């Protein structure tokens, strides 16, 4: 799991000094790839767009009063958020159901949204680069003057992404699927020992699009 545009989620009823290890299957479609453990605690990072204070219809992620599943962890009900002096959201708050460990509730209740996360205390911070097509083919390969129609958003550099701590040991050319974000490869030139840089090589399409 990797959070590319992080915002902090604080689970107010989770013990403040507690950390636990959760067992996670590496690939649901191929159990032979085994499992790993990931740390979980009171303070987590989630994607900034996985929370909206006033969501549109068919938005099933975090918003005040809504309950979601933290992937491989617990059900969490959003209770609100904290903003800075400029009105920007800096923290999301919620409460968890201890009985829902593993992502299912004994009482059988269902949630529609599942989001990924990274524990704040053990998160690995690094740079991630998002590559898109160099030429914007949707608008045509050529401009009116015959020059190539370059895509100005062909590269986005994110400086402070947060990843599972085990990814700190990734080596050049190692490749991973970051859930809900795409497929990534460790850069062979700019990575350093203990601080790999990741390049997105294949993106994933989201089924949800925010209304304009």
How does this structure look, described?
The chain is mostly beta strands. 0% of the residues lie in helices and 40% in strands. It contains no helices and 15 strands. It has a 7-stranded mixed beta sheet, with no helix packed on it. The protein is globular, with a radius of gyration of 19 Å. The protein starts with a strand and ends in a 10-residue tail after the last strand. The mean pLDDT is 91.
Key descriptive features of the protein:
single chain; 212 residues; mainly beta; 7-stranded mixed sheet; 6-stranded mixed sheet; 15 strands; 0% helix
Short description:
With 212 residues, this protein is mostly beta strands. It has no helices and 15 strands.
Biggest β-sheet description: 7 strands, mixed
Q: How far is the N terminus from the C terminus?
A: 29 Å
List the total number of helices. Answer: 0
Kindly estimate the percentage of residues that lie in beta strands according to DSSP. 35-45%
- Estimated helix fraction: under 10%
The helix-and-strand class reads mainly beta
* H-E order: EEEEEEEEEEEEEEE
Envelope shape:
globular
Unreliable stretches (pLDDT < 50, length at least 5) are: none
Number of strands: 15
Average pLDDT for all residues: 91
Please list the strands of the largest sheet in the order they lie side by side: 9-6-7-8-2-5-10
Cα-atom Rg, whole angstroms?
19 Å
